[in-house]
Amino acid sequence: MAGNERFVSGQRLHPHQDADYRASVAPQQRPFAVLFGCSDSRLAAEIIFDRGLGDLFVIRTAGHVVGPEVLGSIEYALAVLDVPLIAVLGHDSCGAVTATLDALRDGTRPEGYIRDVVERVMLSVLGVRDEALTDTDVAVREHVRRTVEHLAQRSAMIAERLADGRCGVVGLSYRLAEGSVGQVVARGV
């Protein structure tokens, strides 16, 4: 969060981005966090958190939807890299959330695999449907919250590490215009 404050204020340090550091992390990675977020081009994790090479293990999908590849990647970071923190990053003006709300409003379903993304986000949005249809941020926050819960429910490894205090999971929401990140939910931190 301190890195995000530097990003917002324009006081970035650009840590761990020089040739010497690149050489030092080449043999082995030791990220301090997994960042699982939306693939939106406007929120590159290392930039908005003022981090550098080797700091974050980044996984991105449209609408930060969870599938086996995501769970396997997170479990790899926990088991092999011993990463103690998982951050789920959503954001305002999310295309996947907007498409989901449009589908709710209009009763239409997108074509192709976009439908799969919308269906996965839909599971989060249905519980706050009425509020979300008038305030998209409600849908974004609920999807972040549900994703955090979903990770612990789907992965025995994440649940076990949460239970024994070896890992924490935090849900965050990014504001595109301001560049700021706020906490939505936290488990084990």
Automatic annotation (TrEMBL):
UniProt catalytic activity: hydrogencarbonate + H(+) = CO2 + H2O
Its biological purpose: Catalyzes the reversible hydration of carbon dioxide to form bicarbonate.
Family to which this protein belongs: Belongs to the beta-class carbonic anhydrase family.
Lyase recorded as keyword: yes
Keyword Lyase: yes
InterPro entries: Carbonic_anhydrase, Carbonic_anhydrase_CS, Carbonic_anhydrase_sf
Keywords: Lyase, Zinc
Enzyme Commission number: 4.2.1.1
Alphabetized Pfam families for the sequence: Pro_CA
Species of provenance: Micromonospora zhanjiangensis
Name under which the protein is recorded: carbonic anhydrase
